């Protein structure tokens, strides 16, 4: 990525922060001054209809003090395809938040619903059934009394419920059942005649230095992309020692990052146990270095993130190019391969037999996710990766 592309990104970000909050201009569509006390687990669902000429609208959660502070301001900008989040304290707007790696689904002349879910640390915001972004509290959420909706919308109603999980489990967002191939776990076993595999030694004897894992190249299927974020499930206990989770896709032309969570359960709140959080970052400090990637690895166990690892490596993750990423459940660690080359390893922080879900989002086109069979392949110990630069990160956010 050249410096001119980076410069364009920075300029675009500056342009997006020139926000017109339309104070005193927008029509008030809905007002409720008697919200009951908000607490963690409270979910507000705003339902409505965007007018055919809708440019923008806003949802405000307000504290009725002398300055009428706004604890949360949500402003979808339909032509620009982003959602502004901000707060207003003592008459002054704070720093706006705009970025989201998730798709913008609001359209003119359509029904919509937006959910605001309250946790102890942040608001979680869901647009049309998909978790879209979060907003950390800047004011005390228990002091919120009023909700108002303004702008180019109509038929507004607000529902309030107490929930024990987020997001809501809707049929259109059910996890995809991940295909399992090979070994006793396979529902559709493949044979050597059906597969185009790498060449391996036919000697089937094993020793303590060998694990039964595989990096199979399968026959090409009809290519289509999964919608992101991707949520997939597999039978608990099927991703164990010697098995591989294989992810195939194509990088977008201007990638910034993508992440993969291998976790227990589908919910965002309460926070699930995450056995492996893997994030590939193509950030500003890698500008101009094609293929240079920062890999972040961590885990979320017992209510907190573990001490993470960061590795700066040269990979074949290049703009617009196809890739294959394999995560191996080895004896003591997850081993990470990109295009069949080992790039990193992450020692287990929990029993991998407990995990049953994979979550993927970011700047890729996702073409396939499969849990594969077993072939002899030499395991790699952590000391064999010592040539790569390792850094410790205290917390991943």
TrEMBL record:
Biological source species: Glossina brevipalpis
Name the UniProt record assigns to this protein: Galectin
Lineage: Eukaryota, Metazoa, Ecdysozoa, Arthropoda, Hexapoda
Keyword Transit peptide part of the UniProt annotation: no
CDD domains the UniProt entry points to: GLECT
Chain positions covered by the region annotation Disordered: 183-206
GO molecular function: carbohydrate binding; galactoside binding
Keywords: Lectin
PANTHER family recorded: 32 KDA BETA-GALACTOSIDE-BINDING LECTIN LEC-3, GALECTIN
Pfam family, one: Gal-bind_lectin
Superkingdom of the organism of origin: Eukaryota
Compositional bias annotation for Acidic residues: 193-205
Biased amino acid composition, Low complexity: 183-192
InterPro entries given in the database record: ConA-like_dom_sf, Galectin-like, Galectin_CRD
Domain Galectin: 30-164, 231-372
């Amino acid at each position: 990525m050249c410096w001119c592309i980076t410069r364009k990104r920075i300029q675009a970000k500056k342009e997006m922060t020139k926000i017109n909050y339309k104070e005193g201009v927008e029509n008030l569509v809905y007002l409720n001054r008697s919200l009951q006390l908000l607490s963690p687990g409270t979910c507000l669902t705003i339902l409505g209809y965007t007018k055919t000429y809708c440019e923008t609208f806003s949802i405000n959660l307000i504290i009725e003090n002398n300055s009428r502070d706004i604890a949360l301001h949500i402003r979808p900008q339909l032509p620009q395809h982003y959602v502004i989040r901000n707060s207003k304290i003592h008459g002054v707007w704070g720093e706006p938040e705009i970025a989201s790696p998730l798709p913008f689904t609001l359209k003119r002349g359509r029904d919509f619903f937006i959910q605001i879910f309250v946790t102890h640390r942040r608001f979680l915001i869901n647009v049309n059934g998909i978790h879209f972004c979060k907003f950390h509290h800047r004011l005390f959420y228990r002091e919120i009394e009023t909700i108002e909706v303004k702008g180019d919308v109509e038929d507004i109603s607000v529902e309030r419920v107490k929930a024990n999980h987020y997001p809501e489990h809707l049929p259109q967002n059910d996890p995809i059942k991940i295909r399992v191939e090979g070994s006793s776990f396979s529902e559709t076993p493949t044979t050597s005649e059906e597969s185009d595999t790498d060449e391996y030694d036919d000697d089937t004897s094993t020793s303590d230095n060998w694990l039964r894992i595989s990096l199979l190249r399968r026959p090409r299927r009809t290519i289509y992309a999964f919608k992101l974020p991707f949520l997939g499930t597999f039978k608990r206990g099927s991703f164990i020692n010697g098995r591989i989770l294989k992810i195939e896709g194509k990088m977008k032309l201007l990638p910034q990052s993508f992440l993969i969570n291998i976790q227990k359960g589908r919910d965002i709140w309460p926070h699930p146990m995450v056995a492996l959080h893997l994030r590939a970052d193509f950030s500003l400090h890698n500008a101009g270095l094609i293929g240079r990637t920062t890999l972040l690895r961590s885990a979320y166990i017992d209510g907190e993130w573990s001490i993470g690892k960061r590795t700066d490596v040269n990979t074949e993750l290049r703009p617009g190019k196809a890739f294959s990423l394999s995560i191996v459940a080895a004896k003591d660690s997850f081993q990470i391969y990109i295009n069949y080359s080992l790039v990193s390893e992450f020692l287990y922080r929990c029993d991998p037999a407990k995990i049953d879900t994979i979550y993927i989002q970011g700047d890729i086109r996702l073409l396939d996710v499969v849990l594969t069979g077993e072939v002899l392949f030499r395991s790699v110990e952590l000391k064999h990766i010592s040539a790569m630069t390792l850094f410790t990160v205290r917390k991943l956010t």
